[in-house]
Amino acid sequence: MKLGIIDYGAGNLSSVCNSFRANGVEGTLVRTPAELEGLTHLVLPGVGAFGDCSAALHSQGLASAVRDWVSADKPFLGICIGYQILFESSEETPGAPGLGIFRGAVRRFPESGLKIPHMGWNTVHPVDASDTVWAGMGDSPHFYYVHSYFPEPEDSSIVAATTTYGSTFAAAIRRGRLVATQFHPEKSQLLGLRFLNNFLSL
C-alpha cells in the first residue's frame, strides 16, 4: 500500500497526514501528476474555496490526473472541498469548473434560521450500513462538519449517506472504490480514524 495525499496549497494536510499515520500508514504529498506513479490510494483533502481548489488543480496538471485515477477505479477519497470539486460547478465560485466526474452542482445552505456555516458534530445516516466504508460504526455515526456548501448529485444512486441540517443533503457518495465525504474524518476522533482505515481496505 502506498498512499498519496494531494497538496494543492490549501488542504488540511497536517491533520489528514496525522490521522493516516495513526492508522499505521505514512502518506506522500502529491503536487504533480508524475508523483502519482506507484501509488495505490489517493486522497484529495479540502479546506478553502471551490474556485481556489479548481484553479490549483488545473495549474498543477492534476485535474486530468484525478479524472484518470477515478476512471481507473483506484481507491480515492475526497474530503470536504475534495468532495465538492468532483462535481461540475459551485454557487460559491460561479464560473469556476469542477472536475465534472459527477453530474450536479454544489449549493449553499438555504436560509433557515440556522447558523451558517454548519459547524460541529452531526449524525450521518448511511444508505447501506453494510457497506464496508461504514464497518464498525453502527447505523447513525457522528462526524465533524465545517461547511456552507454541499453537492447535489444528479444521480441519487451514488449517495452513500445523508445528514440533516435544516435540509437533508448528501453527506457522502460512493462509486466503486471512490468515496467522498462532506464531513471531516480527520477531525472526527475514533470514528474518523475507523472510517479512514475502512477506506484503506478498499
Structure characterization notes:
It is a single chain. With 202 residues, the protein is an alpha/beta fold. It has one domain: Rossmann fold, CATH 3.40.50. It contains 5 helices and 13 strands. It has helices at residues 13-22, 50-59, 62-71, 81-84, 189-200, and strands at residues 3-6, 27-30, 41-44, 76-79, 89-90, 104-108, 118-123, 125-126, 142-147, 149-153, 159-165, 167-175, 178-181. It has an 8-stranded mixed β-sheet. A 3-stranded mixed β-sheet has the order 5-6-10, with no helix packed on it. The model has no long low-confidence stretch (mean pLDDT 96).
Describe the protein's topology.
Blueprint: E1 3-6, H1 13-22, E2 27-30, E3 41-44, H2 50-59, H3 62-71, E4 76-79, H4 81-84, E5 89-90, E6 104-108, E7 118-123, E8 125-126, E9 142-147, E10 149-153, E11 159-165, E12 167-175, E13 178-181, H5 189-200
Parallel strand pairs: 1-2, 1-3, 3-4, 4-13, 5-6
Antiparallel strand pairs: 6-10, 7-9, 8-11, 11-12, 12-13
